[in-house]
Design goal:
Order of helices and strands: HHHH
Number of strands: 0
Helix content: over 70%
Shape: elongated
Low-confidence stretches: none
Largest sheet: none
Radius of gyration: 17 Å
Length: 108
């Protein structure tokens, strides 16, 4: 909602503002998934599950570089913009999978 006014605080150039608004949209979507990723990591830590915690942290950190390189090769600037979002979605899906596996293990 406030993307345009915030970007216009930094630049009055319309081309700079338009790409900045595009970046902000991608980062806001990424932030949503990052919140869930952080939640899963915290839950795993809180219940003493070191392996899922480590998998989540390593996945988030290690996955970003290959994703940014691959998406840059495929989609140029758009790939770079959306690489963090793609990384966060994959990591969030990993957290959901690990949570389901842990839940099944604790039930049985």
């Amino acid at each position: 909602m406030f993307r345009e006014p915030v970007m216009h605080l930094f630049s009055s150039d319309s081309s700079v503002s338009s790409i900045g608004i595009y970046f902000v949209a991608a980062m806001l979507i990424s932030a949503l998934f990052n919140g869930f990723t952080g939640l899963f990591t915290s839950v795993f830590q809180a219940i003493g599950q070191g392996m899922p915690t480590m998998v989540m942290s390593v996945t988030q950190g290690v996955l970003y570089i290959p994703v940014i390189v691959i998406l840059h090769c495929l989609f140029r600037l758009h790939g770079v913009v959306w690489s963090m979002t793609v990384t966060e979605v994959i990591t969030c899906l990993m957290g959901i999978l690990l949570f389901i596996l842990l839940h099944e293990k604790m039930k049985g």
